[in-house]
């Protein structure tokens, strides 16, 4: 019998022992250590931190190792840990304008104050498998960007009134981990959900807006990546102190807007922010953020990416993965109920047909 | 009890948030209270709503029973029971009669519930109107005005097309004459047990972030039509183990030539009956 | 020097208090006893309710006669004290100077849970005849006698019920005792002479 047998607890224990064994693999191969994951699999660490909404490289590495590299599982582990942490206070908003950038590009201007800084990027690499991958010698060739933080492209456009201002009404933003979701959701709540949303899901949705599912004419106004200070105002001090640095990728996507009766034509923004090297994620997020503003800007809500409830209730991969996989759990009581209905329907049909035949 | 975590895993502010939601839920029977569901160490869809509700209500003196598909030994039931034994150190039991709190997935025990007991249901999709209208903004409006015509129409279309209502489980109910409610995916067989039950019924949907409740002695009516009254599943044979003719049966395929065996889905009920028979013999 | 104290055993006392509140609200008219809490100006049961349910996400409003409890509430529950009745999740008031139920947050038709709970202190609570309660949570009817509540309360309650599913839930407290009136409950006064045939 599948279930309803004694020994469920023993079976679970054995399955977990097997998992631990499979995770470790061949004992002759050394166990990967956390510093190796942090240093050499940084993309995985960044993604796990972003979707878990927890900035801690070491914990992310612990999760990745424990999940045997299954990043969904690692995100889940880190989220479940995050939820148990006490909430001591809220930081000041990050000032990404003061970011020490190690990458900064704009697709909208050939050159601009602060210049185009490529930094470390897969862009323009030829995707040829390198079987002898090794560390390069950087000492001679590669400059390190130490210039002061460049002005933001959005601010340059804003000075001419060509782009909508970034509104700050001073209100306390929603906290999606503390407030139950309600619709319509505020932009702050939407951005939080997108920021921890599944990269693959957002990528596909962002992509769909480029293909006509939703009206969109985006330009990558600015992409910047680097470390920013996290500031906190302790109640007893009354002024902000820096409590650490986080590495983030920020995307300001610039979109055409024809204006309304009250608003002259101007550019509008879609905003994306992700921990670490999260360019694909932040760009997708910015496209979807702009798409989700359709209703607010008086545009038709036609594509899935413009539909708040659709996007926000399906972008979380911890939720999605859990519910899809719950189909593995036994459902035989409900299946029996379905069988009961189906058998009755079939019996009635057969009876009807027999009667019909007898009548003919 | 394992250290490092609070009693019953959740921190006190989270429990307070849940407790406030639970009190609203009992005050507005059948209404879905949104709550700030937390990530639990078990996956969403695997009982996180029920687990959060149980964690919020559980005390040191409780005796907890956990069932899945009516059985105490199914893997998920074992896993959740272990979770609370570990994080809260509470007594657990397989006996419906001895339990003060029963967390369940998909069944209500056959043994009649008693006054003072609390049932905690794990709920996958709390919204009864969800298949008719995917939008929360719209279903909220429908509940606000008790605008349930669409559900009656859906059931009526079933009758017109198939001669009967074809909803097999998670069959919609009207609570205290006001709110339409999903009873969670219990079979129709269990719906009548909800009506005027002496026990308190709490429902938790973790992924969907909703809590709802039916207080004791509250009317819970399965939707139907006068000429097509609500019916429950029935079998033409008793349980092959204990001989019960009035319990919900699981069908077990015994060979590849059409062999079938039917046994009680409620393992505690079945075992109690067998024990009683043995004692009598 | 801070007056008063919190729960002796914060985790388990809060759990026991909550279960008592869950019980009195799911079975209206039943009376429970809450842990003894020493808080300036607040009766013990009201103080236990505050510790069990209020915090930084659930602001409280205090009647001027409970002003001495403000400091205690901020310290032991971490609850913000609001001056606008409508912003309060929990409103603490003595029956003698209670606000109209309609003055509290009522929730809205789509979200009737966004409403306030009124913690109303009265002189005494018992299950002697006085009010006859019926509705969800009651098998037939249940008697509740509330001493020291104004005569207008029943009319106010009638209006509160008429707003269902919006409306206010009430916790009546006397000393360390508490009874619940969820917005669903119907209250009929029991007339003298009728008490002999009360049902339970």
Automatic annotation (TrEMBL), chain A:
Q: Name one GO biological process term.
A: organic phosphonate metabolic process
Q: Which InterPro entries match?
A: PhnI
* A Pfam family: PhnI
For this UniProt entry, the molecular function terms from Gene Ontology, in alphabetical order, are: lyase activity
What UniProt keywords apply to this chain's record, in alphabetical order?
Lyase
Lyase as UniProt keyword: yes
Q: This protein is called what?
A: Carbon-phosphorus lyase complex subunit PhnI
Q: Which organism's genome codes for this protein?
A: Roseiterribacter gracilis
Q: What is the lineage of its organism?
A: Bacteria, Pseudomonadati, Pseudomonadota, Alphaproteobacteria, Rhodospirillales
Q: Which gene encodes it?
A: phnI
From TrEMBL, chain B:
Would the keyword ATP-binding turn up in this protein's UniProt record? no
Which Gene Ontology BP terms does the record give?
organic phosphonate catabolic process
Task: Give the highest taxon in the source lineage.
Answer: Bacteria
Q: Which Enzyme Commission numbers does its entry carry?
A: 4.7.1.1
Which reactions fall under this protein's catalytic activity?
A: alpha-D-ribose 1-methylphosphonate 5-phosphate + AH2 + S-adenosyl-L-methionine = alpha-D-ribose 1,2-cyclic phosphate 5-phosphate + methane + 5'-deoxyadenosine + L-methionine + A + H(+)
Q: What's one GO MF term for it? A: alpha-D-ribose 1-methylphosphonate 5-phosphate C-P-lyase activity
Record Pfam families: PhnJ (PF06007)
Family from the record: Belongs to the PhnJ family.
Q: What is this protein called?
A: Alpha-D-ribose 1-methylphosphonate 5-phosphate C-P lyase
Q: Which organism is it from?
A: Roseiterribacter gracilis
From TrEMBL, chain C:
**Pfam families from the entry?**
PhnH (PF05845)
Q: NCBIfam families given for it?
A: PhnH_redo
The alphabetical list of record keywords is: Lyase
Q: Does the keyword Lyase apply?
A: yes
Q: What is this protein called?
A: Carbon-phosphorus lyase subunit PhnH
Q: Is Lyase given among the entry's keywords?
A: yes
Biological process terms from the Gene Ontology for this record are:
organic phosphonate metabolic process
């Amino acid at each position: 019998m599948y279930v309803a047998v004694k020994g469920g607890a023993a079976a679970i224990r054995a399955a977990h022992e097997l998992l631990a064994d499979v995770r470790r693999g061949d004992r002759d191969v050394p166990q990967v250590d956390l510093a190796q994951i942090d240093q050499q699999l940084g993309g995985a660490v960044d993604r796990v931190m972003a979707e878990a909404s927890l900035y801690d490289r070491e914990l992310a590495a612990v999760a990745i190792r424990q999940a045997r590299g299954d990043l969904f599982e690692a995100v889940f582990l880190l989220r479940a840990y995050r939820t148990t942490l006490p909430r001591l206070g809220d930081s000041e908003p990050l000032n990404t304008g003061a970011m020490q950038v190690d990458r900064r590009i704009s697709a909208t201007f050939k050159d601009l104050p602060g210049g185009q800084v490529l930094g470390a990027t897969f862009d323009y690499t030829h995707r040829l498998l390198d079987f002898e991958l090794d560390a390069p010698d950087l000492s001679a060739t590669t400059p390190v960007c130490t210039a002061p933080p460049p002005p933001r492209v959005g601010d340059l456009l804003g000075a001419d009134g060509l782009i909508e201002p970034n509104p700050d009404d001073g209100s306390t933003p929603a906290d999606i981990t503390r407030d139950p979701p309600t619709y319509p959701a505020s932009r702050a709540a939407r951005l939080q959900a997108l920021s921890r949303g599944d990269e693959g899901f957002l990528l596909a949705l962002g992509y769909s807006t480029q293909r006509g599912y939703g009206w969109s004419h985006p330009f990558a106004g600015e992409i910047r990546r680097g470390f920013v200070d996290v500031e906190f105002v302790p109640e007893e001090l009354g002024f902000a102190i820096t409590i650490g640095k986080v590495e983030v990728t920020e995307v300001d996507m610039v979109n055409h807007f024809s204006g309304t009766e009250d608003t002259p034509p101007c550019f509008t923004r879609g905003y994306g922010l992700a921990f670490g090297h999260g360019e694909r994620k932040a760009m997708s997020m910015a496209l979807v953020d702009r798409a989700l503003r359709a209703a607010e800007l008086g545009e038709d809500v036609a594509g899935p990416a413009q539909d708040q409830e659709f996007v926000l209730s399906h972008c979380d991969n911890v939720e999605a993965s859990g519910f899809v996989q719950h189909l593995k759990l036994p459902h035989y009581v409900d299946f029996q109920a379905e069988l009961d209905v189906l058998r009755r329907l079939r019996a009635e049909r057969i009876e009807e047909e027999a009667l019909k035949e007898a009548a003919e | 009890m394992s250290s490092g975590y609070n009693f019953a895993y959740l921190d006190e502010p989270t429990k307070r948030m849940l407790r406030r939601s639970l009190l609203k839920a009992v005050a507005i029977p059948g209404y879905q209270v949104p709550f700030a569901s937390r990530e639990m160490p078990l996956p969403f869809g695997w009982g996180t709503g029920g687990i959060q509700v149980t964690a919020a209500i559980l005390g040191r003196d409780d005796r907890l029973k956990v069932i899945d598909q009516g059985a105490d030994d199914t893997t998920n039931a074992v896993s959740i029971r272990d979770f609370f034994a570990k994080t809260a150190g509470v007594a657990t039991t397989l006996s419906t009669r001895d339990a003060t709190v029963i967390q369940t997935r998909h069944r209500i025990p056959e043994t009649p519930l008693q006054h003072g007991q609390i049932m905690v249901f794990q709920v996958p999709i709390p919204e009864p109107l969800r298949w008719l209208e995917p939008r929360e903004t719209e279903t909220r409006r429908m509940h606000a005005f008790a605008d349930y015509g669409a559900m009656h129409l859906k059931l009526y279309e079933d009758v017109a097309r198939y001669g009967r209502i074809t909803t097999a489980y998670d069959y919609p109910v009207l609570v205290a004459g006001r709110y339409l409610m999903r009873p969670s995916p219990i079979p129709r067989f269990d719906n009548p047990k909800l009506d005027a039950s002496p026990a308190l019924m709490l429902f938790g949907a973790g992924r969907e972030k909703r809590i709802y409740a039916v207080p004791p002695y509250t009317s819970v009516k399965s939707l139907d039509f006068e000429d097509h009254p609500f019916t429950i599943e029935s079998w033409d044979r008793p349980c092959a183990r204990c001989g019960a003719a009035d319990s919900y049966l699981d069908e077990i395929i015994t060979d590849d030539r059409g062999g079938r065996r039917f046994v009680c889905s409620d393992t505690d009920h079945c075992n109690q009956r067998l024990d009683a028979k043995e004692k009598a013999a | 020097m801070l007056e008063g104290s919190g729960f002796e055993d914060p985790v388990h006392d809060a759990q026991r208090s909550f279960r008592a509140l869950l019980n009195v609200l799911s079975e209206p008219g039943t009376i429970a006893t809450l842990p003894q809490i020493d808080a300036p100006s607040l009766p013990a049961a009201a103080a236990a309710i505050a510790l069990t349910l209020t915090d930084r996400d659930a602001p409280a409003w205090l009647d001027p006669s409970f002003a001495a409890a403000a400091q205690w509430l901020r310290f032991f529950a971490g609850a913000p004290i609001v001056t606008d009745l409508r912003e309060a999740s929990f409103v603490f008031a003595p029956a003698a100077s209670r606000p109209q139920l309609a003055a509290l947050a009522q929730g809205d038709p789509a979200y009737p849970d966004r409403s306030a709970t009124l913690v109303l202190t009265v002189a005494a609570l018992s299950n002697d005849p006085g009010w006859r309660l019926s509705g969800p949570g009651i098998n037939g009817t249940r008697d509740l006698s509330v001493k020291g509540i104004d005569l207008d309360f029943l009319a106010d309650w009638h209006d509160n019920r008429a707003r269902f599913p919006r409306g206010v839930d009430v916790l009546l407290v006397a000393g360390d005792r508490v009874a619940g009136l969820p917005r669903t409950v119907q209250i009929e006064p029991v007339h003298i002479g009728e008490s002999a045939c009360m049902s339970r």
